[in-house]
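Meet today's protein:

…
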Amino acid sequence: MKELQNILKTFEQNKNSGQRTALATLVKAQGSTYRRPGARMLMTSQGQMVGSLSGGCLEGDVFEQAQAVMTSGKPIVVQYDTMSDEDIIWGLGLGCNGIVQIFIERVEEETPLNHLEFLNHCLQQRQAGVLATVFYVEGQVKAQVGTRLMVYPDGRVNSDIEDTDLVAQIRDDAWKALEETRSTVKAYPLLTGKVEVFVEVIQPPVPLMIFGAGHDAVPLVHLAQELGWYVTVVDSRQSENTRERFPSADEVVLSRPEGIGESVLLDNRTVAVVMTHNYLHDLELLKSLLPSCVRYLGILGPKSRTEKLFQDLQEQGITPTKTQLQNLYSPVGLDIGADTPEEIALSIVAEIQAVLANYSGGSLRHKLGPIHD
């Protein structure tokens, strides 16, 4: 997420610089590869590069390929096959044992269908959308490499693909990908040829709510911001919950625990961490957070403390449902031996990332099969 934010920021900064700009997108991958489809790298004619497509192996050659694209304006797709001996011949020495296809295009401010504007719109609105990009065309079909279909967060669909039947098929697959929140590559056999499309779900920044403005919330805000998450710090203490203390937070909200329902938006994408260090405040917060649809709810403190919180809630007639308990993580964080505030923040962010990706969070050395499922 941070990578995409940096790319959009750099493109905006270079609009009036007179430089030509190209964008490389990894649209298809087979086998073991360092990055997955959706990885991007922005390049300028003066040599600036933002983002990455590999561990540093492909970027130089992609930049060289992009020079011609910047001049001609004609998009190309470059394939790197590291499963063959040619990898050694090229001198790349990737050793990843996979195949990647990189779509390279010149990007300009004024275009009929500006996909960078679309990406920025999804991030600014903090809602998901779908960007479907044609990257392979075979035969005589009414579609060109680089043409697109976009599904906006509000449901609008925009496309510059000429084949209306193909547009209808891509639109259906785009809605399905959005529902499943999973990007995919689709092949469309047509009467006069074949088209391949990268159907990419554009996820907005993860909305992280931190309840508590103590000193241990500072590194948590910092780490979450490094990942490009949208961070909100909520606390009732005006002396603690300040912009000076949390300069990188997206929002700083002053609210009593019993009033958070009116102060912040809690939806099914929200991840929340309760770390007020105040038992009664935590008790009030849980009355609002447990019935909500938050994706993840972490509570700082030992398990015995959380059990006491739930016991007190039950005495007040509040019994969590099975679903609510499934989204509860207490003690919060992965078991990495964390002790300092920075280490605890790392364990919390790592656990949230694992939960959002539906991973266990265990060591890769114990995983059977490829890193990326």
